[in-house]
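Dear colleague,

Thank you for sharing your sequence with our group. We've completed the structure prediction you requested, and as agreed, I am returning the results in plain text so they can be pasted directly into your records. Please verify that the sequence below matches your submission; if there's any discrepancy, let me know and we will rerun it promptly.
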Amino acid sequence: MMFKKPFQKRFDTCGQMHSLEALMASLIMIGVIVFAVEATSLTPLTSSTANAHIEAQLQTMGQDMLNVLSYTGLSHDSDLKNDVMNWNGTEYVWNGTVYKSSDSKNITLTNSSLAEMFEFIAIPRGIAHNVDFTCIGDNGITITLPYIYNGDPSDNAVIISKKVVLSDTDVGNTSAFMTNTGIPDADNSSGFYNIVNVEMTLWRM
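Please find the predicted structure tokens below.
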């Protein structure tokens, strides 16, 4: 009975030390987990950061493409303007090989600088693309006319645009041009025809 008390006291002290060590280990593990979670959210490997990086790349690529097509040489119209002037109102769909009319599979898109640029840059890189021509109608409402359709854009799609100014002399027969394309003459009293906004939508497949 004389040795029971000191032994019991020593046993209680060891138990307290083990409990304290377990508590400290738990706190350390929680701290490591919190640190790991916070660090992971800041790395460039996360989905949101990667998507933002891809969107920035697509934005730059699309802007460069439109800038090149908008270049105007001496006494020449830009390739982008020629695409608008030569358009007959047909919507073309990429079928994996060529751009074909959505109304007639026998009609393909030819003499289009936009199409050639997509085939050279976007398609080999797996970048889907849509092109719409927008303009202001007689009633002041924006008109959207599809030119190239490649599918429904994803949530991470980017839109780049470039304006093309058309005059009556550019389109030639204004009545026929309006009937074929749906782009109206914004001012019948002058030589100004309309401003067409070329909207390019890009997204990664």
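Summary note from our side: The chain has two domains: 1-42, 47-204.

Kind regards,
the structure core
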